[in-house]
Specification:
The protein has 149 residues and is an alpha/beta fold. The chain has one domain (4-144): Rossmann fold (3-Layer(aba) Sandwich). The chain has helices at residues 22-25, 30-40, 56-69, 85-94, 132-145; strands at 4-10, 46-52, 72-76, 98-102, 124-127. The chain binds ligand CA2.
Amino acid sequence: MAASRVLVLNGPNLNMLGKREPSIYGATTLTDVEAMCVEAAPALGLSADCRQSNHEGVLIDWCHEARESHQGIIINAGGFTHTSVALRDALSAAELPVVEVHISNIHARESFRHSSLIAPIAVGMICGLGTIGYRLALEAMSEILGGDR
Ligand code: CA2
């Protein structure tokens, strides 16, 4: 059976991962995270298509495109998590299972980070476990899509 294509999206400032604020986000770079996703995916019956943008409209366009080309979306929307109705609407419009990831424990930080506009339309959220959250999200997506083998 062909691998299910999963869009792994990272939003604003996540290109800075491993370069600043290691006490919050760790020392692993986004390049490392994306390489780990691409490497881990095949054993889970998935292929990982990893993209990052600092621009809301670009992330929205990718969600729209995914409707036709992918079977699931894993997203760390960065700061847009807490603010963007438009990105949430685009994720809904994709009509694909969404797994939300946060590297830090957003509930243990400032109150403005405690709520996610994406969480209600996601199958589930992984937060506070560092960058291994992306691997856990791939495992969850594999189960959701029935692709674990
Ligand atoms: O914990 C997460 O994964 C966040 O989505 C990260 C966002 C933050 O706005 C969310 O509340 C929680 C920020 C991403 C910024 O990433 C940086 C990484 C290194 C240095 C500076 C920023």
